[in-house]
Amino acid sequence: MTQPSAARLAVRQNASAILDDLRTFAAIPSISTLSEHRPDIVRASEWLADKMKNQVRLNNVQILPTGGAPIVYGEWLENPSQLTVLVYGHYDVQPVDPLNEWRTPPFEPTQVGDNLHARGISDMKGQVWSFLSALGALQANGGIPVNVKVLVEGEEEIGSPHLAKFIAAHKDLLKADFSLNADMGIVDPNTPSLVYGLRGLAYFELWVHGAKSDLHSGLFGGVVHNPAQVLAELIAGMHDAQGRVTLPGFYEKVRTLAEDERAELARMPISEEQLLRTAANPPQFYGEAGYTSFERMGARPTLEINGLYSGFIGEGSKTVLPAKAMAKISMRLVPYQKGADIRPMLEAYLQANAPASVHWQLIEHVHSDPVLTSRDSAPVQAAISALESVFSMHPIFRLEGGSVPVVSVMQDVLGIDSVMMGFALPDDAVHAPNEKLHVPTFLRGIEVFIEFFQNIRK
Question: Has residue 76 got a pLDDT over 70?
């Protein structure tokens, strides 16, 4: 086994300081969804810019406007004969609701055993600080061996609404040979993995309206159609008994998994029971018939209800017939579905199934396309070697169920593919109360990024 490089040894020696910086970063409540946290978004961008300029020692560090949350950019272009990698991350985080389910304050990073708990610590402030720490360690031990451009945005958790326009307007600034996207995870602390596919996303609000105001249910129940009932029936009809989505044309462009891909996904070293525990112990799994849980998680499209609202939802009772009802609906899309195709399908379903006794309104919040990348490219091979060097085993290739809009934007606008490699764990409670980061895996991830940047030299 080869001796770890000076940069990797420096990470081990400076682990305490690296974690202190991460705690400071994670303590900033940079919630992009909530307008009252706009000052925190700005504060997080300024903190990052300062670290990129003065600690990682990148050049041309800028905080760039987007029309929404600013983008932090920096570069190291001192190796003209080498490849240029565009490294992506985001500094915004999800809301903390429900706050009463947190065991520690969400913006007071708290270590419990090997885990550091805070909102956004895994998704993805830990991943951002991981690759920046790797670049800093390389810079302090001989220099960054390739050309690097770093882009960290502040709107990923709300679908990156300004990112595509920003990238299109800054194509020259962001020109690169490929991208490294660190908004990813691995199977478990001892099993590295690489993502080669991401699902896309289409997100809607569906409103069903009845009377102009809430009505007395004793007087008008059974006389006026209840919007909450109509909404529930519409939602129930969006799946059949086999768990398949019923929107017309929904599966027409869905890519079929190859047998070697199914075999690779079957290598996942997690049992159904372990996966159930990771999913907060539901009684059993549910989903489209004919596919394993891991195939459903990354290779099959879904339709999910993310939130419901109607009528009286406070403590106690109030006998009203609600005037309106609302559902938030998201669909995860797989190659070769297109995000722009989904709204007409949902509208066709509603036109065919909504009764004339109510009227409905559909609001589209965001859509993005799924992504599929090569498993054989030179950057992916460099990532495989880096993971093998640190974890002493060959990584598993997997399809990620989540959506990262920037990957498809970079394909479409910049013409570059992404290496998708990060170190979140399935039980990190991402987007949920008590989000955490596994510290030993975080530190190993820094060493992997060091190896990766060294491996991609020509």
Answer: yes
Do the Cβ atoms of 455 and 385 come closer than 8 Å?
yes
Parallel, antiparallel or unpaired: strands 436-438 and 115-117: antiparallel
Q: Which fold has domain 6-198+371-455?
A: Aminopeptidase (3.40.630)
For the domain made up of 200-254+301-368, the CATH class stated in words is: alpha beta
Q: Which of 297, 234, 217 is nearest to 265 (CA)?
A: 297
Tens of pLDDT, residue by residue over 431-444, are 999 999 999 999 99
Residue 400 to residues 185, 297, 368, 373, 420, Cα–Cα distance (Å): 9, 7, 15, 12, 10
Q: Model pTM greater than 0.90?
A: no
Three-state DSSP class for residue 151: strand
Which amino acid belongs to residue 131? F
Tokens of 261: 């891909």
At residue 120, the 3 state secondary structure works out as: coil
Q: Do the two domains 6-198+371-455 and 200-254+301-368 of this chain adopt the same fold?
A: no
Q: Is 90 left (phi over 0), alpha (psi -120 to 50) or beta?
A: beta
Read off the DSSP letter of residue 357: T
- Across the beta sheet with 302-310, what order do the strands follow? 302-310, 324-333, 200-209, 359-368
pLDDT single digits (tens) 86-119? 999 999 999 999 999 999 999 999 999 999 999 9
In whole angstroms, give the CA distance from residue 434 to residue 431: 9
| The pair of three-digit structure tokens given for residue 367, joined into one six-digit string | 């859509």
Q: Domain map of the chain by residue range?
A: 6-198+371-455, 200-254+301-368
Residue 322 is encoded by which pair of tokens? 């609600």
